[in-house]
Design goal:
The structure is a homodimer.
Chain A lengths: L12 H9 L4 H9 L5 H8 L3 H13 L3 E8 L2 E7 L1 H4 L2 H14 L8 E5 L4 E2 L18 E5 L11 H7 L2 E2 L5 H8 L1
Antiparallel strand pairs in A: 1-2, 3-4, 3-5, 5-6
Chain A binds a DNA duplex through α3, α4 and β2.
Chain lengths: 182, 182
DNA sequence: CCGTGTTGGTTCATTCATTGAACCGAGGCG
DNA sequence: CGCCTCGGTTCAATGAATGAACCAACACGG
């Protein structure tokens, strides 16, 4: 990040978290993984992030136990990045930050996405609570749906287009991308 | 943060949040405000942050509506930084990140702090839920108490010492500091 | 079996941010 | 009058981010 390698002896949980996910781009990469992005080139297309930085962030997330790098084909060798248990557990933090921005840094068009509890088919509230079952579902039980602001959101790279469809969190985006190419 | 002034057109709520609170040190400053730190020199003593960076971060937080700069004495003129409504609303995000680190980046000694719902006198769970009243209390209804890991946490600047006492969140730390000096 | 395309990188010069030390100014205090 | 505190600003040095170029492994089409 910058000189202070270890956040200057801040012996505190928040500092430890920020060590790992507090660098520029890192949390956006994590968000993309929740949305189903798994491949190097898909992150790159969606985030417009320099490749060197993406390499560094993915490696840091793997080293930190947030992502796992998994071989999905042998020839040519190709790896994908998937969330570990620790990674999935980051959802409340990611969601809380995003909902804060929806509430306090609003855009005219409103929220781009909504998140619904698939087993109840109900959109969760800003605290993540499902009104139907009264619980706060984990990321594995959520799907993302376009919100009112989606209409004004215009990136036209294939990954962005595929991400506009309603789809289950964490599930791979790749099938939709392959279909779109065909 | 670095070149990409606007997180590269990521038209997304998380990106907007990170614009404002995603820079190095920023979230630690916000955490300190929740703990009661309000003055420039107290932030500086507790965080070991370069003064120029602290100035920049506090200004950004004021401009972004997270903090308010308030004159607390006229001669010499002195200001303190206090949370706005938007600032207080950041608590769930800060808490979620910290609790994630407690769970997945643990230290041998355990959590340094616990947070209790003052009206119920009960420690809240990692999701922020109070077991007694069944709600997720806002930061204004919480107090911090030393946890099992506090014993191994040793910074001896006056601010760190004052922060070890149980105390209400957001309430100013300054009285305890003045008392300690006396 | 040759050229082209895709994926997943690495390397490198330039630009920008962070750092830490030094300096500064307004005012209180003895 | 001189010194201290608070809350900064300035500045040179260092390190990180950027973006363009390069590279390697392999598939595929002809």
């Amino acid at each position: 990040m910058a000189l202070g390698k270890d956040y200057a002896g801040q012996d505190c949980a928040l500092a430890r978290a920020l060590e790992l996910v507090g660098e520029r781009w890192t949390l956006l990469v994590v968000r993309d993984v929740f949305y189903g992005v798994r491949r190097f080139s898909d992150f790159q297309a969606h985030l417009d992030i320099p490749r060197a930085v993406l390499t560094a962030r993915l490696s840091a997330l793997v080293d930190g136990g947030v992502l796992e790098r998994r071989r999905y084909q042998d020839s040519p060798p190709r790896d994908e990045y998937v969330l570990t248990e620790a990674g999935v557990a980051l959802w409340p933090a990611v969601y809380a930050l995003a909902q804060w921005a929806v509430a306090f840094l609003p855009t005219a068009a409103g929220a781009i996405r909504e998140f619904a509890h698939v087993t109840c088919d109900a959109v969760v509230d800003p605290a993540g609570l499902c009104a139907v079952c009264g619980r706060v579902p984990p990321a594995t039980e959520l799907e993302t749906r376009p919100g009112p602001g989606m209409a004004t959101y215009h990136r036209d790279d294939p990954v962005s287009v595929a991400l506009r469809r309603p789809h289950r969190l964490i599930e791979p985006l790749q099938p939709a991308l392959a279909e779109a190419r065909a």
